[in-house]
Design a protein that fits this description.
The structure holds two protein chains of two kinds. Chain A is an alpha/beta fold. Chain A contains 19 helices and eleven strands. Chain A folds into two domains: 216 residues, NAD(P)-binding Rossmann-like Domain (Rossmann fold, 3-Layer(aba) Sandwich), CATH 3.40.50; 230 residues, N-(1-d-carboxylethyl)-l-norvaline Dehydrogenase, domain 2, CATH 1.10.1040.50. In chain A, strands 3-2-1-4-5-6-7-8 form an eight-stranded mixed β-sheet, with helices on both faces. Chain A has a three-stranded antiparallel β-sheet with strand order 9-10-11. In chain A, strand 4, helix 6 and strand 5 form a beta-alpha-beta unit. In chain A, helix 2 packs across helix 5, helix 9 packs antiparallel against helix 17 and helix 12 crosses helix 13. Chain B is of the alpha/beta class. A nine-stranded mixed β-sheet of chain B has the order 3-2-4-5-1-6-9-8-7, with helices on both faces. The longest helix of chain B is centred in the middle third of the chain and has 19 residues. Chains A and B meet through helix 4 and helix 5 of A and helix 4 of B.
Chain lengths: 458, 415
Amino acid sequence: MDLDTRLENVAVLGAAGKMGSGIALLLAQEMAREKLKAGNKDRTYVLHLIDINQESLTGLLGYLRVQLTKAAEKSIVSLREVYADRDDLIENYDVIAAFVEDSLSVVRPSTTLDSIGGSKLVFEAIIENLPIKLDVLKKVDSICGPDAYYLTNTSSIPIHVIDEGVGLKGRIIGYHFYNPPAVQKLLELISTKSTEPEVVAMGGELAKRLRKKVFPANDIAGFIGNGHFMRDILHATAEVKRLMADEGMTEPEAIYVMNKVSQDLLVRPMGIFQLIDYVGVDVCRFIMHVMTEHIEGERLEDEILNKMAKAGVLGGQFASGAQKDGILKYDGGRPAGVYDLSKGGYALFADGDWVALLDEKLGAPPAGIAPWRALLMDAGKSSKLKTYFDALAATDTMGAGLAREYLVRSQEIGAKLVADGVADSADVVNGVLTNGFYHLYGPINEYAELMTDKVGGK
Amino acid sequence: MKKLTKPVYVTAGYNTVSLGSGRKEFHPKKPRPGLEHYIKEAGQGALAQVNDPANVDEGVISNFMAARFNRQGNLAALMPMIDRKLEYKPLIRVEGACGSGGLGLVTATKAVLSGMADSVLAVGVEVQNSVKAVYGADILAGAGHFATQRKEGHAYFFPAKFSDRSCATQAEFGAEKTRKGMARWYERAILNARQCPKAQEYHNSIDDLYAAGMSPCNANAFCGHINVYDCSKVSDGASAVVFASEDGLAKLGVDKKDAVELVGYGQVVADISKDPEDQTKLTTSARAVANAMEMAGVTSKDIGMLEVHDCFTIGGMLSLEAAGFCGYGESPDFVIDGKTAPDGEVPTNLSGGLIGYGHYTGGTGVRQAADIAMQFTGKPDGQKIEIDSSKPYGLMISMGGNDRTVVSCVFRKAQ
């Protein structure tokens, strides 16, 4: 059965969730484009959107309508060609409205699995909980039959564990979109030793159609993206504890410092604690738990994250995509405070002079520093980064020291992912971090080399 | 060729800020001023320069598509909001796509020449940021022929029309030279706009403007032969001037030193349903300019300040050829050699033109007249130049659609 045929009947499990809704959005567009091809007029296209939450499913339809409109607006040049034979669709407005309706017309939301029997492509984006995943997938397998292929969006659970747990015999592949799936170009594609070659080929072909950039990862818990991210977190939280012990900082102060260093001095799009909030404190804890469970000899757990979660400090996002308060407090999407566990509330940056004092303690940033956003689209960013990191290597401030340690640790983590066989090469690791996390440079880089003889003597 | 039957003066120029992307105060998701605000600001800005609005006899308002951008028709009836003393006076709205402003100037001129009015307030306005660019492109496509061109047309209808002109010009005269000329046009437009605090590109901080102008074109996302820097932006704004006879100036209490004289105009229209005769030429513009110059008794050698309709860089360059400032195919070199710069052979678009100042479509022609009037009377919004005494005339070209409705006017300092 070819991909075109499989795309006639698709199901997304957990469709109203953060990742599921984005995957649904991508598929609705792709299936509508298939439906509109001249030779496909007689075919029927169905996209089952399954979620246990009725209210969320209702919200999903609204989300899809808004996002499909935005997507159609962006691709108006090609859509006018798609509808060239429709004399009634003349203006961009007409074409965009038609595409939104054509996309929504394939969608079938439901809270039950009853209707998905014909689905030959099943996307799994339900909660990162192995027993629940296994339970649902077993039911789906019994409904959809032995020729259905499965694409799981798990970001941490080894694919072979799901495969064996359900008994899919290689009909499943790891298909890890990044958040938000409709925007992020990166797709981690994880196959196991028993994954059927046809499933791998189909996954690659579909990724191409969805205009995703595929990076292959091997089937080791956490894969590449989270394999780096989780260990990056542990470095930051270890530094927080060290700053508290050695420098007499309070926990909120040390969190502020490490968030600032990891964003500003590493020229990353957001600081490490902001990224934890973006993903969700509980999600990070869960991924660490899964990695600990499946990776022999390494325990990934963090006391700060555990304490925050226990206090109900969870981060994550609202349905609108806006950031919820977490370890950091947000004002207009920007960090504005740090949660102080000892006081049960946020220490605001604007209150008093504690932030200014910390900035002073960190020291002036090295010459040539530029914000991530300014360099993102800069064609000359490589040479600007090189100049900056040269300066960072030579700068004798607390902030520069912390940044050097961070860079070197990040490089070690990246190199270990290659050594452990999670990634086939340094290029793949760097590709995942630059495409999925929007870093301007991969963790395995020439800059870290500049720092290696300058770390350890904080 | 008919001659003007009496002197017609233009005074009291006023331009609002051209608001849109690029301005620091612009935010697409925040509330912004509407049509009424701009009409009032520009109209009041002009009337503040005369003794009493009661002495203005008539009014004309130029606008292209408020009915779609703002769901508002009957625009003449918005003019009394400028000043209650305009109520119950003859007020009229004119439309000729992006050449609406030029038509407003001609309408005001005719009212003065006819003797029915001694003075006329001319306002031009457009508020376009009310819709996203992708839908704005639909609305602006109304300047082409909907029945025969829109369905086959590009998503970005007008950019594609001028991309076709760019393509033809590159094929005829060399891709590299034409492309470089377009990039230099962009660079010059922004450099001029940075001198004018009301210009949309006043805050532009791109380091290497020429490199930006040389950005590759992307046919998949936009157009094959122009890039985004070749295009004027989406703008909100308005402009106003007052037209007056000799008696009118006296009644308004305006000294001639604060006025320019309109000494010639040409207004011509071509068939909207037909494609341009030659993609490498602005033939309608050429006729309008020739008529205006003939009426004024001048040639391109007499022009010391030029305002052309550079909705696209290629359009600006082809205007230079249409108006006879350089030969056919010579405009890229003319621009590259700096001849349009403020200290060049013919200082052009000193406040940035449509690309630098902004292009509130229906109001742009009025803005051009206001800029010439303010420059010649020593009160420009932006950079001030010394008009070469051997070239004491200012020329403007206001163009609607793909060189379909065109007005050209020649001015000089009032004698």
